[in-house]
Amino acid sequence: MRNFALLLASVGLLLVSPAHAADRNGNFAIKGVGLATCTDFLESFRSGDDRLPMFFGWVSGFLTAMNLHAADTYDLVDWQSDDYIAASLRGWCEANPSQRFFSGVYQMARSLESFKVSEQSPVVIMKGPQGRIRLYRSTLDKVRAELAARGLYDEAAHGREALEMALRAYQRREGLPETGVPDTATMFRLFAAR
């Protein structure tokens, strides 16, 4: 299994840096389920068959390789949950059923670049209504700054409860469930749906 993960990471390496990514004509080999079509992925996704872990394992290997080789990148996947990643891939593949799964993963990874974590940051775990939410401290700093810019976050006035209060106020304003935590729907609305 470790060798398989290394192989997946190696495939990702081939795809990241143009200087090392392809032959002189821009061609490169795609391995594993990256060769499958989006239709194959969608069938597996809908049925939950035995191939589904292979698809998502391939995605993890690809993203890890991107983290390793993309400039100024610690983690390409900042606040996006596994469900967000799955929904992104499903949406792209539904719109492009005859394309290779690789193409959907590549496009999804490119869409994450503007949200990436550039430098290592401690992880903060928060309890949400659907379970634990794992975010980088640097991401929470961005959330606080964004909420403050919207006039919702005031740590001096509200102390330790300031973030939860600001998130609830933002969620209420946006018509989102008032969880008081930076869940995926809130983070998407706060950062991606501009």
Descriptive notes:
The protein is mainly α. It has two domains: 114 residues, no CATH class; 70 residues, Muramoyl-pentapeptide Carboxypeptidase, domain 1, CATH 1.10.101. It is 58% helix and 6% strand. Strands 1-2 form a two-stranded antiparallel ribbon. Strand 1 and strand 2 form a beta hairpin. The relative contact order is 0.11.
Rounded to the nearest angstrom, the radius of gyration is 19 Å
The outline comes out as elongated
What's the total helix number?
A: 10
**Structural class determined from secondary elements:** mainly alpha
Portion of residues in helices?
55-70%
Separation, N- and C-terminal Cα atoms:
41 Å
Strand order of the largest sheet: 1-2
Oligomer: single chain
What's the main sheet like? 2 strands, antiparallel
pLDDT < 50 runs, ≥5 residues: 1-19
- The number of strands is 2
Overall pLDDT level: 88
Order of helix and strand elements from N to C terminus: HHHHHHEEHHHH
Proportion of beta-strand residues? 5-15%
Number of separate structural domains: 2
